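In the previous lecture we treated proteins in isolation. Real proteins rarely work alone, and many bind small molecules. This record shows how such a complex is specified: first the sequence, then the SMILES for adenosine-5'-triphosphate.
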Amino acid sequence: MATNPTSMFNTSSNVLSVNIGTSIGSMVRRPQMRRTLKVQETLFSNRSFVPKTTSTFPRKFGTWAARFSLKSSLDLKLPFKPLRLIHMENKESSSSRGALIVLEGLDRCGKTSQSGRLYKYLEEQGHSVESWRFPDRNTGVGQMISSYLANQSQLDDHAIHLLFSANRWEKRVSLVHWIDLFVSELYLSIPVSLMEEKLKSGTTLIVDRYSYSGVAFSYAKGLDIGWCKAPEIGLLAPDLVVYLDISPEKAAERGGYGDERYEQLEFQKKVAGSYLALRDSSWKVIDATLSIEDIEKKLREVVLDCMKACHKGKPLSQLWPSSV
Ligand SMILES: Nc1ncnc2c1ncn2[C@@H]1O[C@H](COP(=O)(O)OP(=O)(O)OP(=O)(O)O)[C@@H](O)[C@H]1O
Ligand SMILES: Cc1cn([C@H]2C[C@H](O)[C@@H](COP(=O)(O)O)O2)c(=O)[nH]c1=O
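The predicted 3D structure, ligand included, written as tokens:
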């Protein structure tokens, strides 16, 4: 039995498969479970809901329950058999999509300044673009992270690592799509990947820090690199990672340095070493000690190239590109 939820689903096709029988059966019998079901389905979200390797007992029970519930309890005359698969073709072509651009680097290297400038430029050029950042401190998980970074709370290194990762997973899925199953109170939620959906609809995402920060900072604390990467597996892989390269000493001279937990020279030196271990073919390195304007120019070049490739049909992929 697969242990990684994402590995249980067919991610290569643009088809959504929903085992309606099982879901309706459970929902009709125990309406209070509807919320739970949605959460479970959200956790297992991807292109197909039906795990291929799960035990058959719950599925068969769900089938029976669906038939029993729908025929006997409610005596509903539904225009479909209780158990069937819905195949929803995703009309959005994978050929013309936005790019997932990630900015990485040591604290104070200039990511936020460059994200803002890049966003403004792309928007002015008429591109559909959004600026994201991790940690997203607006969510419940993000607030715990923020309090930890501000030294207002203490957490085990593994625990904070998992919170950072959870903060990325919670931005991956949004429950915005619902299918009306012809019965007023019965709704089946279709989890939609927030990030994937945006990219497929043509929006380019500029993301200030991503999984690479997650691994680099925890690995710098001495945690096992494979362990650090594991919770990131299955998140979308960036199309481009721009590493803003600055020495820890120079970064420490910049304004605002030292405000948060990790902004300490010796630790940042270790983080710089961790980043080196993470570089792969999706990375471009830009000298972050250049003027803001020069960095901006170089950044635009690599970003526009990447956006062109995505527009032409470069497929989306998942982390982690190399073996853990
Ligand atoms: N190229 C640059 N040259 C000199 N100073 C810069 C440059 N880029 C940014 N700065 C300054 O460095 C400081 C940090 O910049 P910024 O907030 O953009 O970095 P950051 O990487 O987002 O930081 P953090 O990771 O700590 O949030 C700011 O005071 C900013 O004005
Ligand atoms: C995403 C992420 C971040 N961190 C660290 C890196 C920084 O020191 C802070 C975030 O600060 P910012 O000013 O908001 O960029 O958190 C981390 O350790 N793990 C992560 O996944």
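Summary for your notes: The longest strand covers residues 173-180. The beta strands are 15-19, 85-89, 100-104, 129-133, 173-180, 187-193, 204-208, 240-245, 283-287.
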